[in-house]
Amino acid sequence: MAFLSLEQLDKSFGAQTVLRGLSLEVAKGEILALLGPSGSGKTTALRLIAGFEAPDRGRIRVESADVTALPPERRHFGMVFQHYALFPHLTVGENVAFGLAGVAGKVDSARRVAEALNLVELPGFAGRRVGEISGGQQQRVALARALAPEPRVLLLDEPLSNLDPTLRERTRRELKRAIQRVGITTVLVTHEQEEAFHLGDRVAVLHGGVLHQVGSPEDLYERPATRFVATFVGRASVLPCVLEGDGAVWVPHPALSGPTGAAAGPVRWSAAPAPELAGAGPGEEVDLVVRPESLTFVGAGDPRALAGRVTERRYAGPVTYYQVALAAGGEVEVLAPPGAATTGDAVRVAPDAQGPAPRLFRQMREQARDQVRDN
Q1: Which of 81, 93, 192, 193 is the one with CA 20 to 30 A from 158?
Q2: Using one digit for the tens of pLDDT, what is the confidence trace for 291-301?
Q3: What is the rounded distance in angstroms from the CA atom of residue 79 to the CA atom of residue 245?
Q4: CATH number of the structural domain 2-227
Q5: Alpha helix segments (H runs only) across 12-132
Q6: Hey, where are the domains in the chain?
Q7: Which residues share a beta bridge with 348?
Q8: Helix (H, G, I), strand (E, B) or coil at 276
Q9: pTM of the full structure
Q10: Pairing label, strands 306-316, 346-351
Q11: What 3-state DSSP class applies to 32?
């Protein structure tokens, strides 16, 4: 049963529609990550949950109780802001105690502060000044302040965006441990896929104010529901193609032709049609989206192979990303061992059954392509 429910939320600012029909359910103790590019509506969704904005339509419920019209201070939610909003003239303990202001009834402030700092693994820090601790420790102080009043829901707005990459990774682990230790229902906003995948039990992908998919990180990466999710989550190559047979195979699009105008040849790859292709027939023009690890270099005898040449090689430790310009036109990215090829090599590329199956989606109109690029 859902602990927190968003029901058909709409939100516009003037003529700009920011959210359209957003519906989500979050279980008690679950961490849900809202992931999307700038302008996707994820921060507006968080502000609606917090009560800082009111929806134009729809309802927000906690344990079935409608809180849509309640002001922020009556929702009993905790929030960690992007810039932490700590008071530099106060000690760490005083900052945490500030979160207890307005809590009904008598509260043992010193005990709550100590418990909150222990939860975020900062015992003994109560007397320190904010300016004397690191950025990662400041983030945990902000979390302790949000947790001290024992809120029903924890909201995190880009909680790690101010940290350098090395510190961000360590703090991310510490943040997740603290949230799991409390078992609090949490919604976080981020534009970083790695952060969403690490922290979120489930991830909701938004784009243009619309929810495209919600599921586990594995679902989003291996079984994307829309073309946007397939290209936004992880790395992927896109090839225009034509459906053949039952829609589970493809042949290169006539646009993928070589310098002589010759077609790429009788190349057919198995692919999984997206739900949006239900009912599509043979000959329909679609896009094939394939992950780098779903491609491999093969010998000339493989009938599924596309010929090409390596134009770029990006070393990444135990693996290397190879950008391959296909002789028939178009480009793909291949993940392979560092010694598999070098820049300038002639290669042949075919599907690798070890990776996620390639997916087929409807082709985007030029206007939609421009919108994705702008974001």
Answers
A1: 93
A2: 999 999 998 88
A3: 53
A4: 3.40.50.300
A5: 42-50, 72-75, 92-98, 109-119
A6: 2-227, 229-374
A7: 307
A8: helix
A9: 0.86
A10: antiparallel
A11: strand
